[in-house]
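Worked example

This section walks through a single chain of length 539. The input is the sequence exactly as stored; nothing has been trimmed or padded.
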Amino acid sequence: MTESHASDPEAERRGSLSDRSGLLLEAFDPQQFREHSETALAKLEKHLSDLSIRGLELIEPATLSRAARALMTTEHEKITAFDEERLAGIIDLYVRTGIQVHSPGYMGRQFSGVVPLAGVIDFVSSVVNQPASFYEAGQLPSAVERIMAEELNRFIGWDPDGFTMITTSGGSLANLTALLAARNEKLPGYWSQGGSAVRGQPRPAIAVGADVHYSVARAAGVLGIGDAQLVRLPLNRQQQICPSEVRATLEAAERQNLKVFCLVASAGSTSVGAFDPLDELAEVAREKDLWLHVDGAHGASLLVSDALRDRLRGIEKADSLTWDAHKMMFVPAPCTMLFYRNKETALSAFRQKASYVFEEEQDVYTAFDSGGKNFECTKRPMIMTLWALWAIYGRALFAEKIEYLCQLTREAHDTLRADPDFETLHRPEANILCFRYHPPGLDKKDVHHLQIAIRNRIKFEGNFFISKVNVDGVAALRVVMMNHRITGEHFRMLLSEIRRTAQDLLTGEEATGAVAEKDPEKGTAKGAEQGTAKGTGKA
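Given that input, the structure is written out below as tokens.
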């Protein structure tokens, strides 16, 4: 030991580290890691404690890019010394410019504020960095993936010894994987031979609801089925697949030389949160020898509620199910589960050999590998956040919050029905509600553009964040209740803002001859002008 080390405890500690390590890099110092974590923790605690009503602070991209670049080091030849203020600035900018999912003003999307403990577990996952497709790389994530499959299957109802579940990075990938398994199961030879395997036969097709999530249509293209071979099933007034018209639609497809091999149903559609009649669709699927896949990315979580489980009556008859925990189970994204009723069919999706990952001889450890059943080789141990919450708090945490959000949405629907200036479009089955501001005397041709203008103005003003969707070809305002801090009073405040905004827009129309702010660039410029000066919105 040198004399300088003997007189300097910090130098002694670093020298000791250097003796045991190869390259000594301060950025990897555990003590510094703790200090960084405490900085982030203090800021996130403040963020979670802020219950003010605020929406989205939309900043023009060039302005935001300049702010981000101002936080970057200009040193490129050597490692820059750590700057606490730089880290604080990065965290502040990140938190401030995101959608404020923990605020009562956030009613716009299907991702939610997370249970804070889930964020802690996700933080641990990021640091220990255990990819979870193979048991040897992520032992606990692989084991608890099996545990959570068993826990949640109690609500699905499949044979405990016959089903399986894997995790995927998002519902789009889960839908693609399930459709791939369905195609390979129902069209043997397609995996190895491609389209030539069905040459001279009817064209493969997939039956879907008329407003199916775009990921299913995208999957049809990826799988070589083709968007043109999607058989669109008519919807009823509740935006559900109309079971009385399914058989006739499928028979018409047969006459057009199409072979439908899979039927995709929704359990909580993205547009309005509709639940298709799974019991009746399963009967058709069995009769026609179709694979029944249920896209329950949003609504499958209702299974954990005794009061709401009936929305998915018939789910036990499906062949596969997509379930996003990052929606109604309130964990960080992505965390998607893909269930198969028959675990053997899960092996149909991918048929490959790769000596560097797949073991030739199976044992008690490799039995827990999921790499052969999903697209991803390196994937996050996403199940850990869900399992930790389930292990510590139990099912009731999820059930109570989901039931509250669904009840809140029903109350919001009743509030709208009592107001002659608003038009309700469906009876909410979960926590998604679509409606229009349509006061008496408003010309029908102006309804569509008015809803878009209202949504844009509200987004740019930054007090509330809501979304929009076309229902029967006409724009509608859409709220998604994901925050248990929201009350009926918050929703009535939103309606007051919608009414005021609409009246301002219509007054502007009288003066200019066009609905104001149809051009989103006008709002964007406004956001840029306010930029960093705006702070959080006030209701």
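What to look for: The longest strand covers residues 258-266.
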